[in-house]
Structures are given as C-alpha cells and as structure tokens.
Design a protein that fits this description.
mainly beta, three-stranded antiparallel beta sheet, about 15% helix, globular
C-alpha cells in the first residue's frame, strides 16, 4: 500500500475510475512480434510509445501471461506494426488467443528477422535494450533499427471501440 507525504495510508483508487480514465485516452493499434525459433509470434498491444528520437527509442508493455511473452523476453529484437484503418480483422486476431495468428496473414521479416505485418500504416524493428519488470507486465525498451511508414491512415482505439484515424477532424482554436 502506498502512503502520503505524512506517512498516512493513501486511499485506493477505484478500478472503475482507472478504467474510465484509460478509456478517454486514444491509442494507435499496434502488433508486437518476434520469432520463436522458426515460428512467428505476436500480440496486440495498446501500451506503445516513442521514448526519444535521438537515440530512436520506443517502449511496449506486455502482460506476463501472454503466450508471446516468453519468446519476446528471450528475443534480441522485436517488430512493431502500427495497423492501418482497414486492418481491424488483423487486430481482432492478434487480440485473441489463437494458436497460429499468422496463418492467413501476409508479413515480411525485418532485417533482424522480426515479423512486420504487410500493409500496415507503419512498421519498425527494434533491438531490445531493456526489460523492466513490474507486477503484471514487462516494459520492453528497444532501439529502432528499421522504420517505414505509408500514407495509409492508422486504426485507432478509444473507449472500447476502433476508429479510422483518417476520418478525424482537426481541432479548432
């Protein structure tokens, strides 16, 4: 339990409040991939972020119970595909628990072998530099070794739904 500055126990935050807060945050839809021997593995992750441009660092958070977790933890590199707005079926497959998520999927191996999903809005491959373990997740920090993007609009996620990132209206001042 955490404490306040004067050492009193801090009040617990209601899980419903935390969920409500997270549902207000819009994220891109990313698929994190690696190779497990000769077998490609991957999962949908919404906890992806750029850390810096120089050096080019990114991070993803992966739950330890994921079937992709162990192969990713052992890997030297990871692939990250930012899905395009028409790739909702891909997001659905990778959000699930299927045995072979790559069965009907077109992908290309990055320079270090990480699977990169074809037709994505953007893809990158990163050398994993750090693995920071938390209670239920591990934060993987990687240095980008390869990156490409297209003009395809991204698939975005907010409040439990998926949206076409190319259909957003610019905010007015």
């Amino acid at each position: 339990m955490s404490t306040t500055a004067d050492n009193r126990p801090a009040a617990e935050v209601a899980e419903s409040d935390v969920k409500g807060l997270h549902r207000k945050f819009i994220t891109g839809v990313t698929i994190v991939t690696t190779m497990d021997g000769e077998r490609p593995r991957g999962l949908a992750v919404n906890a992806f972020s750029s850390i810096s441009l120089s050096p080019p660092l990114v991070m993803v958070c992966v739950q330890r119970t994921s079937s992709t977790y162990e192969p990713l933890f052992r890997a030297d590199h990871m692939g990250i595909s930012i899905l395009a707005s028409d790739q909702l079926p891909v997001a659905t497959v990778f959000a699930g628990k299927g045995d072979d998520k790559f069965a009907d999927l077109r992908w290309t191996a990055g320079a270090h072998g990480s699977p990169l999903i074809d037709s994505s809005a953007a893809v990158l491959e990163a050398r994993i530099q750090e693995r920071l373990q938390t209670s239920t997740h591990t934060i993987f920090i990687g240095r980008v070794t390869q990156a490409a993007h297209s003009e395809r609009p991204p698939l975005i996620y907010s409040a439990g739904g998926f949206y076409d990132g190319g259909q957003l209206d610019a905010a007015a001042l």
